[in-house]
Automatic annotation (TrEMBL):
Its cofactor is pyridoxal 5'-phosphate. Keywords: Pyridoxal phosphate. Signal peptide: none annotated. Gene3D superfamilies: 3.40.50.1100. The keyword Electron transport does not apply. This is Pyridoxal-phosphate dependent enzyme.
Length: 323
Protein backbone atom coordinates (compact mmCIF):
# COMPACT_ATOMS: atom_id res chain seq x y z
CA UNK A 1 0.00 0.00 0.00
CA UNK A 2 2.77 2.43 0.94
CA UNK A 3 4.74 1.55 -2.20
CA UNK A 4 1.72 2.35 -4.37
CA UNK A 5 1.27 5.65 -2.57
CA UNK A 6 4.92 6.63 -3.01
CA UNK A 7 4.52 6.23 -6.78
CA UNK A 8 2.09 9.17 -6.71
CA UNK A 9 4.71 11.52 -5.32
CA UNK A 10 6.15 11.97 -8.82
CA UNK A 11 2.89 13.67 -9.81
CA UNK A 12 2.67 16.03 -6.85
CA UNK A 13 4.78 19.18 -6.65
CA UNK A 14 7.23 21.00 -8.93
CA UNK A 15 4.30 22.94 -10.38
CA UNK A 16 4.81 25.59 -13.08
CA UNK A 17 5.81 29.15 -12.25
CA UNK A 18 4.88 31.97 -14.64
CA UNK A 19 5.19 35.75 -14.68
CA UNK A 20 2.03 37.84 -14.92
CA UNK A 21 1.66 41.20 -16.63
CA UNK A 22 1.46 43.99 -14.05
CA UNK A 23 2.14 47.74 -13.86
CA UNK A 24 2.72 48.28 -10.13
CA UNK A 25 4.77 45.21 -9.28
CA UNK A 26 6.44 42.11 -10.63
CA UNK A 27 3.83 39.40 -10.14
CA UNK A 28 4.43 35.68 -10.52
CA UNK A 29 2.01 32.79 -10.12
CA UNK A 30 2.56 29.25 -8.89
CA UNK A 31 0.08 27.07 -10.80
CA UNK A 32 -0.81 24.52 -8.15
CA UNK A 33 -3.67 23.19 -10.26
CA UNK A 34 -1.07 21.12 -12.12
CA UNK A 35 -0.86 18.65 -9.25
CA UNK A 36 -2.16 15.07 -9.52
CA UNK A 37 -5.88 15.74 -8.97
CA UNK A 38 -5.83 19.40 -9.94
CA UNK A 39 -5.19 21.35 -6.74
CA UNK A 40 -2.68 22.22 -4.05
CA UNK A 41 -4.65 19.99 -1.65
CA UNK A 42 -2.85 16.99 -3.15
CA UNK A 43 0.13 18.00 -1.03
CA UNK A 44 -1.91 17.99 2.18
CA UNK A 45 -3.88 14.81 1.49
CA UNK A 46 -0.77 12.90 0.45
CA UNK A 47 1.13 14.01 3.57
CA UNK A 48 -1.69 13.14 5.97
CA UNK A 49 -2.38 9.72 4.43
CA UNK A 50 1.30 8.85 3.97
CA UNK A 51 2.09 9.61 7.61
CA UNK A 52 -1.08 7.83 8.72
CA UNK A 53 0.14 4.67 6.99
CA UNK A 54 3.67 5.03 8.34
CA UNK A 55 2.40 5.41 11.90
CA UNK A 56 0.12 2.38 11.58
CA UNK A 57 -3.06 4.45 12.00
CA UNK A 58 -4.11 3.54 8.44
CA UNK A 59 -4.05 0.01 7.05
CA UNK A 60 -5.78 -1.87 4.23
CA UNK A 61 -8.97 -2.19 6.33
CA UNK A 62 -9.17 1.46 7.40
CA UNK A 63 -11.94 3.84 6.36
CA UNK A 64 -10.62 7.37 5.98
CA UNK A 65 -13.12 10.13 6.85
CA UNK A 66 -12.68 13.84 6.17
CA UNK A 67 -14.50 17.15 6.21
CA UNK A 68 -13.99 19.12 3.02
CA UNK A 69 -15.55 21.84 0.89
CA UNK A 70 -14.14 20.23 -2.27
CA UNK A 71 -10.48 20.01 -3.23
CA UNK A 72 -9.21 18.11 -0.20
CA UNK A 73 -12.00 15.56 -0.62
CA UNK A 74 -11.13 15.03 -4.28
CA UNK A 75 -7.44 14.61 -3.43
CA UNK A 76 -8.08 12.21 -0.55
CA UNK A 77 -10.69 10.23 -2.49
CA UNK A 78 -8.32 9.80 -5.44
CA UNK A 79 -5.40 8.74 -3.25
CA UNK A 80 -7.53 6.30 -1.24
CA UNK A 81 -8.99 4.83 -4.41
CA UNK A 82 -5.48 4.41 -5.84
CA UNK A 83 -4.22 2.50 -2.80
CA UNK A 84 -7.43 0.52 -2.32
CA UNK A 85 -8.96 1.81 0.92
CA UNK A 86 -12.37 3.29 1.72
CA UNK A 87 -12.94 7.03 1.91
CA UNK A 88 -15.97 8.97 3.19
CA UNK A 89 -16.05 12.73 2.58
CA UNK A 90 -18.40 14.98 4.55
CA UNK A 91 -19.42 17.87 2.30
CA UNK A 92 -21.96 20.72 2.31
CA UNK A 93 -24.19 22.60 -0.18
CA UNK A 94 -21.43 25.07 -1.12
CA UNK A 95 -19.44 22.34 -2.84
CA UNK A 96 -19.16 22.69 -6.61
CA UNK A 97 -21.66 20.39 -8.32
CA UNK A 98 -19.06 18.71 -10.53
CA UNK A 99 -16.95 17.89 -7.46
CA UNK A 100 -19.93 16.29 -5.77
CA UNK A 101 -20.59 14.14 -8.84
CA UNK A 102 -16.93 13.11 -8.99
CA UNK A 103 -16.91 12.20 -5.30
CA UNK A 104 -19.97 10.02 -5.83
CA UNK A 105 -17.88 8.03 -8.31
CA UNK A 106 -14.61 7.95 -6.35
CA UNK A 107 -15.60 7.68 -2.70
CA UNK A 108 -16.96 4.72 -0.78
CA UNK A 109 -19.82 6.92 0.43
CA UNK A 110 -20.56 10.68 0.37
CA UNK A 111 -22.23 12.34 3.36
CA UNK A 112 -23.69 15.81 2.87
CA UNK A 113 -24.73 18.09 5.74
CA UNK A 114 -27.30 20.79 5.10
CA UNK A 115 -27.58 22.56 8.46
CA UNK A 116 -25.59 25.76 8.94
CA UNK A 117 -23.65 26.24 12.13
CA UNK A 118 -23.99 29.27 14.41
CA UNK A 119 -21.49 31.26 12.30
CA UNK A 120 -23.63 30.90 9.17
CA UNK A 121 -21.23 28.37 7.63
CA UNK A 122 -21.17 24.59 7.48
CA UNK A 123 -17.71 23.71 8.78
CA UNK A 124 -18.68 23.06 12.39
CA UNK A 125 -21.61 20.93 11.26
CA UNK A 126 -19.31 18.95 8.95
CA UNK A 127 -16.80 18.35 11.73
CA UNK A 128 -19.56 17.20 14.08
CA UNK A 129 -20.70 14.69 11.44
CA UNK A 130 -17.12 13.49 10.86
CA UNK A 131 -16.75 12.77 14.58
CA UNK A 132 -20.09 10.96 14.60
CA UNK A 133 -19.06 8.77 11.65
CA UNK A 134 -15.68 8.08 13.21
CA UNK A 135 -17.30 6.94 16.45
CA UNK A 136 -19.62 4.60 14.55
CA UNK A 137 -17.10 3.19 12.05
CA UNK A 138 -14.65 0.54 13.30
CA UNK A 139 -11.02 1.01 12.20
CA UNK A 140 -11.56 4.52 10.88
CA UNK A 141 -9.14 7.42 10.58
CA UNK A 142 -9.98 11.13 10.45
CA UNK A 143 -7.93 12.97 7.83
CA UNK A 144 -8.10 16.22 9.76
CA UNK A 145 -6.86 19.02 7.55
CA UNK A 146 -7.62 21.62 10.23
CA UNK A 147 -5.55 20.18 13.10
CA UNK A 148 -3.18 17.51 11.76
CA UNK A 149 0.33 19.04 11.47
CA UNK A 150 1.00 16.71 8.54
CA UNK A 151 -1.28 19.00 6.54
CA UNK A 152 1.08 21.96 6.65
CA UNK A 153 4.19 19.76 6.57
CA UNK A 154 2.97 18.64 3.17
CA UNK A 155 3.63 22.18 1.92
CA UNK A 156 7.28 22.36 3.03
CA UNK A 157 8.40 21.22 -0.41
CA UNK A 158 6.32 23.98 -1.97
CA UNK A 159 8.20 26.48 0.17
CA UNK A 160 11.49 25.04 -1.06
CA UNK A 161 10.29 25.19 -4.67
CA UNK A 162 9.59 28.88 -4.12
CA UNK A 163 12.90 29.84 -2.53
CA UNK A 164 14.81 27.83 -5.14
CA UNK A 165 13.05 29.77 -7.91
CA UNK A 166 13.74 33.35 -6.79
CA UNK A 167 16.87 35.35 -6.12
CA UNK A 168 14.61 38.26 -5.11
CA UNK A 169 11.14 37.86 -3.70
CA UNK A 170 9.34 40.36 -1.46
CA UNK A 171 5.83 38.96 -0.92
CA UNK A 172 3.84 35.73 -1.14
CA UNK A 173 0.03 35.97 -1.27
CA UNK A 174 -1.78 32.85 -0.02
CA UNK A 175 -5.51 32.23 0.42
CA UNK A 176 -6.55 30.60 3.70
CA UNK A 177 -9.07 27.90 4.51
CA UNK A 178 -7.71 24.93 6.48
CA UNK A 179 -4.52 27.07 6.59
CA UNK A 180 -2.17 24.23 5.69
CA UNK A 181 -0.69 26.08 2.73
CA UNK A 182 0.04 29.35 4.51
CA UNK A 183 1.42 27.55 7.57
CA UNK A 184 3.68 25.19 5.66
CA UNK A 185 4.90 27.73 3.11
CA UNK A 186 5.57 30.42 5.72
CA UNK A 187 7.57 28.07 7.94
CA UNK A 188 9.59 26.66 5.07
CA UNK A 189 10.26 30.03 3.41
CA UNK A 190 11.04 31.99 6.59
CA UNK A 191 13.70 29.48 7.62
CA UNK A 192 15.89 30.49 4.68
CA UNK A 193 14.43 33.85 3.57
CA UNK A 194 12.99 35.62 6.63
CA UNK A 195 12.71 38.91 4.74
CA UNK A 196 9.94 37.58 2.49
CA UNK A 197 6.56 38.83 3.71
CA UNK A 198 3.68 36.37 3.90
CA UNK A 199 0.25 37.89 3.16
CA UNK A 200 -2.84 35.86 4.05
CA UNK A 201 -5.98 36.40 1.98
CA UNK A 202 -9.36 35.64 3.55
CA UNK A 203 -12.99 36.36 2.73
CA UNK A 204 -15.53 38.42 4.66
CA UNK A 205 -17.54 36.22 6.98
CA UNK A 206 -14.65 33.89 7.73
CA UNK A 207 -13.51 33.89 11.35
CA UNK A 208 -9.89 32.81 10.77
CA UNK A 209 -8.54 36.31 11.44
CA UNK A 210 -11.19 37.22 14.03
CA UNK A 211 -13.59 38.85 11.58
CA UNK A 212 -17.32 38.78 12.42
CA UNK A 213 -19.00 35.65 11.01
CA UNK A 214 -21.52 35.85 8.19
CA UNK A 215 -23.00 33.57 5.55
CA UNK A 216 -20.59 32.55 2.79
CA UNK A 217 -21.58 30.99 -0.50
CA UNK A 218 -18.21 30.47 -2.19
CA UNK A 219 -16.29 27.30 -1.40
CA UNK A 220 -12.54 26.89 -0.99
CA UNK A 221 -11.68 29.97 1.04
CA UNK A 222 -12.40 30.98 4.63
CA UNK A 223 -13.60 28.92 7.58
CA UNK A 224 -16.19 28.93 10.37
CA UNK A 225 -13.52 28.22 12.99
CA UNK A 226 -9.89 29.13 13.49
CA UNK A 227 -7.90 26.10 12.31
CA UNK A 228 -5.57 25.01 15.14
CA UNK A 229 -2.63 24.57 12.76
CA UNK A 230 -2.59 28.27 11.87
CA UNK A 231 -1.02 28.92 15.28
CA UNK A 232 2.19 27.69 13.65
CA UNK A 233 1.97 30.09 10.69
CA UNK A 234 4.21 33.15 10.33
CA UNK A 235 2.01 35.81 8.74
CA UNK A 236 3.09 39.40 8.15
CA UNK A 237 -0.15 40.88 6.84
CA UNK A 238 -3.75 39.98 6.05
CA UNK A 239 -6.10 41.11 3.29
CA UNK A 240 -9.86 40.54 3.64
CA UNK A 241 -11.85 40.46 0.38
CA UNK A 242 -15.59 40.34 -0.20
CA UNK A 243 -17.34 37.57 -2.10
CA UNK A 244 -17.97 40.09 -4.89
CA UNK A 245 -14.22 40.85 -4.94
CA UNK A 246 -13.52 37.15 -5.46
CA UNK A 247 -15.76 37.04 -8.51
CA UNK A 248 -14.15 40.17 -9.94
CA UNK A 249 -10.67 38.84 -9.20
CA UNK A 250 -11.36 35.57 -10.99
CA UNK A 251 -12.83 37.35 -14.02
CA UNK A 252 -9.93 39.82 -14.14
CA UNK A 253 -7.47 36.96 -13.91
CA UNK A 254 -9.12 35.27 -16.87
CA UNK A 255 -9.37 38.43 -19.02
CA UNK A 256 -6.05 40.01 -18.11
CA UNK A 257 -3.79 36.96 -17.75
CA UNK A 258 -5.78 34.26 -19.60
CA UNK A 259 -5.61 32.07 -16.50
CA UNK A 260 -8.81 30.17 -15.77
CA UNK A 261 -8.56 29.53 -12.05
CA UNK A 262 -10.78 29.01 -9.03
CA UNK A 263 -12.22 31.19 -6.30
CA UNK A 264 -9.14 31.26 -4.06
CA UNK A 265 -7.00 32.29 -7.02
CA UNK A 266 -9.44 35.09 -7.80
CA UNK A 267 -9.23 36.26 -4.20
CA UNK A 268 -5.43 36.22 -4.24
CA UNK A 269 -5.22 38.01 -7.58
CA UNK A 270 -7.65 40.72 -6.45
CA UNK A 271 -5.75 41.17 -3.18
CA UNK A 272 -2.34 41.41 -4.83
CA UNK A 273 -3.50 43.83 -7.54
CA UNK A 274 -4.83 46.26 -4.95
CA UNK A 275 -2.22 45.72 -2.26
CA UNK A 276 0.73 47.80 -3.35
CA UNK A 277 -1.05 51.07 -4.21
CA UNK A 278 -2.86 50.90 -0.87
CA UNK A 279 0.22 50.20 1.23
CA UNK A 280 2.34 52.68 -0.73
CA UNK A 281 5.33 50.36 -0.80
CA UNK A 282 8.62 52.24 -0.99
CA UNK A 283 10.27 49.43 -2.89
CA UNK A 284 10.78 49.80 -6.59
CA UNK A 285 8.59 47.27 -8.37
CA UNK A 286 8.21 44.78 -5.52
CA UNK A 287 8.26 41.13 -6.56
CA UNK A 288 5.32 39.04 -5.39
CA UNK A 289 4.31 35.41 -5.81
CA UNK A 290 0.65 34.41 -5.93
CA UNK A 291 -0.39 30.85 -5.09
CA UNK A 292 -3.18 29.65 -7.41
CA UNK A 293 -4.63 26.49 -5.80
CA UNK A 294 -7.03 25.15 -8.46
CA UNK A 295 -8.60 25.60 -11.90
CA UNK A 296 -11.83 27.37 -12.72
CA UNK A 297 -13.77 24.64 -14.50
CA UNK A 298 -15.50 23.52 -11.30
CA UNK A 299 -16.69 27.10 -10.70
CA UNK A 300 -18.50 27.54 -14.02
CA UNK A 301 -21.86 27.25 -12.25
CA UNK A 302 -20.89 29.71 -9.53
CA UNK A 303 -18.32 32.52 -9.72
CA UNK A 304 -18.18 32.42 -13.54
CA UNK A 305 -21.96 32.36 -13.86
CA UNK A 306 -23.43 35.87 -14.17
CA UNK A 307 -26.88 34.82 -12.97
CA UNK A 308 -25.37 33.08 -9.92
CA UNK A 309 -23.43 36.27 -9.17
CA UNK A 310 -26.65 38.29 -9.21
CA UNK A 311 -28.29 35.77 -6.88
CA UNK A 312 -25.26 35.97 -4.58
CA UNK A 313 -25.59 39.73 -4.41
CA UNK A 314 -29.25 39.37 -3.45
CA UNK A 315 -28.44 36.78 -0.80
CA UNK A 316 -25.76 39.00 0.69
CA UNK A 317 -28.17 41.95 0.82
CA UNK A 318 -30.77 39.77 2.56
CA UNK A 319 -28.18 38.50 5.03
CA UNK A 320 -27.02 42.06 5.77
CA UNK A 321 -30.58 43.25 6.37
CA UNK A 322 -31.13 40.49 8.93
CA UNK A 323 -28.09 41.43 11.02
Amino acid sequence: MLEELIKLSDFIGNTPLIQLSSENSRLFAKLEYNNFTGSSKDRAAYSIIYNGIKSGAINENTTVIASSSGNFAIAAASICRRIGIKFIPVIDPNINHSYELLLEMLAYKVVKVTTRDYTGGYLLTRIEKVNELHAGTPDSFIADQYADPNNYKGYYNLGKEITDSFDKLDYIFIAVSSSGAITGISNSVKQVRPEIKIVGVDVEGSVIFNQPPMKRFISGIGASKIPPIIENAIIDDVVIVSQADIIKGAMDLLHEQVIFAGASSGAVYYAAKHYFPVTGSSQDAPTALLIFPDKGHTYLDTIYNKEWGIQLSQKMQEAASMQ
